[in-house]
Every structure is written in structure tokens, then in C-alpha cells.
Design goal:
By secondary structure, this protein is mostly beta strands. Helices cover 13% and strands 34% of the residues. InterPro entries: A-crystallin/Hsp20_dom, HSP20-like_chaperone, Small_HSP.
């Protein structure tokens, strides 16, 4: 993760801040709660997989997605930018799993988390722990 942030900082030092409002942004995320996994779609058009890091914090149940999105081109070309509407620069997004309001607070199988880039969308699959049986505890009444 440190390498991605160092890389992003070097890029911003060389080419200036990516956004007019702020140096970083939080990409939009869709979260799907399927029977076997949480599926996240993170909108990152123009991002390269080597510039993205995904980490699971089991103590806080947080999935961290961070990295950098570059504008393609060399410095001379980038200096000709007339209008910049795309979000570029460093980004970070923390997603709590299970999401707030979830009816089933399923546990996450951290060893099975996977991610891939598909047409500008980072697709992250976070499998749920498979439960082979439902444990029922008898409560004695006093």
C-alpha cells in the first residue's frame, strides 16, 4: 500500500494535483449482497491494476481500496488540457462489510477475497464464511 501512495505522490509532485477541489477523491461503489459473497463494483475509469491496492482489516470489518488514477500522456500533452472533468489523482475508499442495515451479518472469508479490473470497474468479490449448520443454544429459564 505504501508503494502505491508513494507512486501517487511522485505523480502529483510531477504533474500537479489531480482535482481542482481536492488532492484526492472517493470513487463511487455499488455493493451487492449475494447468498455466498459481497460483490463490490468500484468505478475507476482510467485506473491501472498495478496502481490500486485492496486490503481487508478484520478487526474493523473494513475493506480499504486506495490508489491513483492518471491522465494518460506526457507532460507536454497534459499542459494542453483545456477542460478536466474526470476524477484523477489519489483516491481512497473504506467500505464496512457487512453494509449498514444488512439483514444478515455474515462473516467474511478474508483468504478468499479477489479483485479484477473489467472495463474501468474494479470488481471485488468478498466471500462469506460458509456455515454448514445453524447452531442453536438452549436458554434455561430461572
Amino acid at each position: 500500500m505504501r508503494n502505491i501512495r508513494d507512486h501517487a505522490q511522485r505523480f502529483q509532485d510531477a504533474y500537479g494535483a489531480g482535482n481542482n477541489d481536492d488532492d484526492s477523491f472517493a470513487p463511487p461503489v455499488d455493493i451487492f449482497d449475494t447468498e455466498k459473497a459481497y460483490i463490490l463494483h468500484v468505478s475507476l475509469p482510467g485506473a491501472k491494476k498495478e496502481d490500486i491496492g485492496v486490503n481487508w482489516d478484520a478487526d474493523r470489518n473494513i475493506l480499504n481500496i486506495a490508489g491513483v488514477v492518471h491522465r494518460p500522456g506526457d507532460e507536454e500533452f497534459l499542459n494542453t488540457l483545456a477542460s478536466g472533468e474526470r476524477k484523477v489523482g489519489m483516491f481512497e475508499r473504506n467500505v464496512t462489510l457487512p453494509p449498514e442495515g444488512s439483514e444478515r451479518p455474515d462473516e467474511v472469508d478474508a483468504s478468499g477475497i479477489s479483485a479484477k479490473m473489467e472495463d474501468g470497474i474494479l470488481v471485488i468479490t468478498v466471500p462469506k464464511v460458509e456455515k454448514e449448520w445453524t447452531e442453536i443454544h438452549k436458554v434455561d429459564i430461572e
